[in-house]
Write a structure and sequence with these properties.
With about 230 residues, the protein is mainly alpha-helical. The chain has helices at about 5-25, 30-55, 60-80, 80-85, 90-110, 130-160, 175-200, 205-220. Helix 1 packs parallel to helix 3, helix 3 runs antiparallel to helix 5 and helix 5 (about 90-110) crosses helix 7 (about 175-200). The model is unreliable at about 115-125 and about 165-175 (pLDDT under 50).
Length: about 230
């Protein structure tokens, strides 16, 4: 079994668990939970559907990471209440979202800065300054994190159900939304620094370099000017 196959099998296993959660919820007449878990399952399938629609090939690592994040944040966090059972669950997930959104920010810059030829070993043809690319990736991740916090706040008002979790109990210190934004920034900053290092010294190995190379190799048409 090759590496990509094992990642695909793991992603399918998590989706099977979600299907079991849907069946179990409906079997126990927990209709609301069943609908919510069905929505979570749909979210894990959505990236593949969008990729086919947009004719983009998503590397197995990306797909698995997205599914794990959705599974951990919504299925385990919201449905099974891990946010309240494990105090650091929300912090880890928000930091991870900063990582993921930072990577997405870098890929967006690559696509927007389409070139006639992109070398996988040298920074040829890439005409944006590394500092600007790193700043864009950081800003993109923080912006999406801020928009999500606004969504949580509005959803809490409209649905009369707070999605905000009290990180520190009743002492008035550091509201949950602020802590979430801080850890979002930490995750985004780490990815931005790694990306900056990659653009300055593309020969140095890193996991970010491998992800970017694989995405470029899978989608060469996105990196050629029309």
């Amino acid at each position: 079994m090759d590496e990509n196959s094992s990642k695909t099998y793991l992603a399918v296993l998590l989706q099977i668990i979600l299907v079991g959660g849907v069946i179990g919820a409906f079997w126990q007449n927990q209709w609301f939970t069943g609908v919510i878990v069905s929505g979570i399952l749909l979210l894990t399938i959505l990236p593949n559907l969008l990729a086919k629609q947009l004719k983009v090939k998503i590397p197995a690592e990306f797909q698995l990471t997205i599914i794990i994040f959705v599974f951990a944040s919504l299925f385990l966090g919201e449905i099974h209440d891990y946010y309240n059972k494990i105090w650091w669950w929300d912090i880890v997930l928000h930091t991870s979202s900063g990582f993921l959104l930072g990577i997405v920010g870098f890929l967006l810059v690559y696509i927007l800065n389409e070139t006639d030829q992109i070398s996988l070993h040298q920074n040829t043809g890439f005409n944006m300054k590394p500092g600007f690319v790193a700043f864009f990736a950081f800003s993109f991740a923080v912006m999406v994190g801020a928009v999500w916090e606004i969504f949580e706040f509005v959803a809490g008002i409209v649905l009369d159900h707070t999605m905000e979790r009290a990180t520190f109990a009743n002492d008035g210190s550091l509201p949950d939304a602020i802590l979430d934004l801080i850890v979002d920034c930490v995750g985004a900053l780490v990815i931005s620094l790694l990306g900056y290092r990659y653009l300055k010294k593309p020969s140095k190995p890193s996991f970010l370099l491998r992800l970017i190379r694989k995405f470029i190799q899978n989608n060469p048409r996105l990196f050629k000017r029309l």
